[in-house]
Amino acid sequence: MDEVVRSGDWWRNEGVSVERFERDFAELEETPLVLAVTSGTHALELALMSAGIEAGARVIVPAATFFSTWSAVQRHGATAVLADIDLDTWTLDPTAASAAAAETSAAAVVPVHYGGVPAPLADLGRSAPTLIQDAAHGPGIRSQGAPLVQAGGIVCWSFQQSKLLPGGEGGAMGFADEATYRRALTLQNCGRIPGTPGYGHLAVASNFRMPELTSALLRAQLERFVDLSIRRANGASRLRARLAAIDGIVLQRARSGDSESHYLVQVRLTSTGGTGRDEIVERLASRGIPVSRTYPPLCEVPAYGASGYDPAEAAARCPNAMLVGRTGLSFHHRLLLAPPDVLDWVGDTVAEAVTSAAERFS
Fold first, then answer.
1. Where is the active site (predicted)?
2. Do residues 108 and 59 make contact, with C-beta atoms less than 8 angstroms apart?
3. Residues labelled as active-site residues
4. What is the mean pLDDT of each run of 10 residues along the chain (362 residues)?
5. What is the three-class DSSP state of 18?
6. DSSP letter at 171?
7. What is the DSSP string of 41-99?
8. How many Å from the N-terminal Cα to the C-terminal Cα in the chain?
9. In order of start, what are the domains of the chain with their CATH numbers?
């Protein structure tokens, strides 16, 4: 960071730190073509532009995900079509995605690796011509042992404050082909080809360039990422073992052969939901445990109905997303770095809270 500050070159077109970060991140994610950008949300928007998704085109997104997955499609001028999730992985259900894509002649599908659990990319990639992956809950995700980009299309990561590789803000994109990468490189630089002097703007585009200072912070974070990932994996294994023993809890699970990033440990409650779930969250949070409700289904976000969509129709088509939205709990990754005795205490505290809520609300 000090080196970048002293250089006086704080923007990408004159500095070297962003390119160094791209090389380091590409090595981590086994992705030859990486482009650093301003945020994970911007990565999704730029992916739609770079892939040539036209205004008005249909794009399949999971009904259970963070708002940006949906809003990026809307801001692009395309139409987001919600599809249901699988109740084990909480990721986009291939059958639901294929049905929605066939019904709407979808141009793209956007699987989300929710909580760091990989979506079934081989199946989902067959549902639409273009694959854009939302890997905001990475890095560190592998699908059946392979890097995400091997499935094709574009992969989008986020480096927002709460993420596994935090830079305050920031994002990155990985590309399966060089032509799409070159388009994105131009579109993120106000329509200019990098290295071209002056004002040779070749396309109507915006500025999605990552600042040099952000990249310097991220390079420092990369130095400890692998060690922290190992600690998180060990912590997740211990916490999940405790949670799995609690009556009334079902864990989100990755498929055999997949490697998750351990961004979140997530469960759903079978004995209570709604008010009971919210009371559990408040009780655990009051004890200092980093837990939250899962994302609400997109059809329950006010902007969804305000954009002309029918929330009731979407809810009826996506019962699994609705169930997870009512009954889900998310434990943040910073908890997974806690000592074993703390994780055991968390498991015991969750058991007490779930049992108490079940008695009151069942």
1. 163 (proton acceptor)
2. yes
3. 163
4. 77 89 98 98 99 98 99 98 99 98 97 99 96 99 98 98 98 98 96 82 94 96 98 99 96 98 98 84 97 98 98 98 98 98 98 87 63
5. helix
6. E
7. HHHHHHHHHHTTPPTT-EEEEESSS-HHHHHHHHHTT-EEEEE-B-TTT-SB-HHHHHH
8. 54
9. 2-222 (3.40.640.10), 225-361 (3.90.1150.10)
